[in-house]
Amino acid sequence: MSPEEQEQNNEKAVEHGRWLFSQTCTFLVGAVKMEDLPEASQTEIAFAGRSNVGKSSLINALTNHKDLARTSNTPGRTQQVNFFNLGKQLTIADLPGYGYAKAPRETVRQWTNLVGDYLQGRMQLRRSCLLIDSRHGIKESDRKVMRMLDKSAVSYQIILTKCDKIKPAQLEKLLITTSTEIESHVAAHPELIATSSVKGIGIVDLRATLAALVTER
Ligand code: GDP
What we know:
Order of helices and strands: HEEHEEHEHEHEH
Distance between the termini: 23 Å
Bound molecules: guanosine-5'-diphosphate
Number of helices: 6
Helix content: 25-40%
Strand content: 15-25%
Mean pLDDT: 91
């Protein structure tokens, strides 16, 4: 493909992403068990990450909402997967945050069961976005989830969040170390996307990447 053709394709992908994410996005259901999952009729993508990683902010930024996704990580609160319908084209699954240091064992077990069941039983799940706080990089609790995703053969992509909080040189370094680490993870997508919901960085790219998954169906 010539550079011009490549450029045209990129522009098309960006436009498709812009269009898709300008569609109406509505809350479908909060699922606490497999039986609650909404019918599987369209492409689905999931968002996962440690508590406070910036997941709600990113989903809100992608869909141009102020409070579509809310922080639901209050310790002790029921853990659920929140589903959203974007323009009858794409289902967005917002997985409960993990890695809260003081979480009781029972909460961790509940999380693992719910998310494990979800990941293994969801045929239309095309990709999981695994959010990593750029100030902290990949932590042990993220590695556990990465192994779970590898095992379930669910394709996942690392999305760095809060990139406005670190210096460009730190971000460069983080991109290199993270890329190196994911090489050994079989289900990890090689391309990383650096984002900031506050500054709007990477949002256009992420929309384009996710919209392409709908087209490829
Ligand atoms: P969640 O628990 O993963 O849903 O995280 P939230 O979206 O609620 O964000 C957690 C905290 O990080 C909040 O105080 C947000 O304002 C802040 N935050 C989220 N995204 C960004 C970002 O891109 N840049 C900065 N500077 N702060 C962010």
